[in-house]
Amino acid sequence: MSCSVLPLLLALSPVLSFLLLPGVSASQEVLWENYKHGRLSSELLDEHNCNWKCLMFTLQWPGGFCQSLSNETYCKVPPNINDWTIHGLWPDGAQRCCSCWQMFQSDVQELKQNLTEYWPSLLKSRSSFQFWKEEWNKHGVCAACVEGFNSPLKYFQVCLKLRQHFDIYSWLEAAGITPSCERLYKVVEVNDVLAPHLGDKHEIQCVKDQKSREVLYQVKVRLTQNLTFGCDHHGNTAGSGPEPLPSTGHPCPPDVPFYYLPINPQQPWRPCS
Ligand SMILES: *[C@@H]1O[C@H](CO)[C@@H](O)[C@H](O)[C@H]1NC(C)=O
Ligand SMILES: *[C@@H]1O[C@H](CO)[C@@H](O)[C@H](O)[C@H]1NC(C)=O
Ligand SMILES: *[C@@H]1O[C@H](CO)[C@@H](O)[C@H](O)[C@H]1NC(C)=O
Question: How deeply is 198 buried, as exposed, middle or buried, from its count of CB atoms within 10 A (0-12, 13-18, 19+)?
Answer without folding.
Answer: buried
